[in-house]
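Exercise 7.
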Amino acid sequence: MAEINPPAWMQAGSYPARTDRLILSALLSYPGFAVDEPTPTRIRQGIKPSYQNYQLKARAAPTPNMTVIVSAGFCFIDNHDSGGLGTYVCVNDGDKTLTVQPAGGAGQYRRDCVVASVYDAETAGSANEWRLEVIQGAYAASAGAAVRPSLPPNCSLIADLTIGPSQSSVAAGQIFDVRNFSVAAGGILPVSSTIAPPRLHPGQTLYLTNLDKMVYGRLDGTTADLVPKATAWSPITLSGAWVPNGATGDSAPSARITHDGTLELSGMARGVAIGAGSNAAFGTLPASLIPLVSYWVRGVAATSVSQDYVRVAVDPSSGSIALVNGSVAIGTGAWIQLDGVRGRAS
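Solution. The predicted structure, written as tokens, is:
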């Protein structure tokens, strides 16, 4: 086991800058990306989170031109020239305007990247500095074929820029925020689900900004919803002769996913006869709920026939709802009460 000896903070003399970098690494979250997993002393690098994540955010000039503006903020960048060399803290104390190289001619598209980069002559090259810079991408024959350029090994992505033929300015619509955010160990990481790190330490929590929900890291490296957000009630599309019951105070059949991930149905309908021991198609879930139902749901609905009950079965592959009758036949026009029908596979 390597040890900083004597402890740097107890000595008045000089010591290598790498010592400070390793101390900083110890205060930050451990690696969040598979490429860093073989080097556990690396961190989850990225931008320091803030209200609305405004730190080191790229935006267009007030009058768009071939520049982008990067706001003030802090960035933590790990040394990837060699494993375990520690973390750099990079500070931008005000708006920084970066020049974007002129666009190509007809049929020439490219993707440029705005990055925060560290150059350290101790491990590679001759420069000793950190930069906010735009790395120009290679030209492609279409926008879809343009890819990110090769990036410096020690950098944190800030934004992608799409540059089309003869483009004379970079507007907001050509700037795509791809920042990752770094936090102290155990802190909540606010990040879009599209760029969320794939590996969280057990209990590490993400706030997925684009989905407005929380997920947490599990011991096996996977994630799970911390508290799933309940969806709004959405109408069920009824099949055949089934119609809402229509009585005063009755609600039309509808469905939602509850905060614990359970499918819940509600409302009243009347319609077709269902023989004893028979099944009948009832309706279909809203399309927005079908991907969330990864299990068969079997609930019990009340009917107006001798206090009989029918089972409600939902097919997760199609969202279709079937009524599975018991021992008492249900005549045409009898009502079906769905309130309280909810559950998971049994």
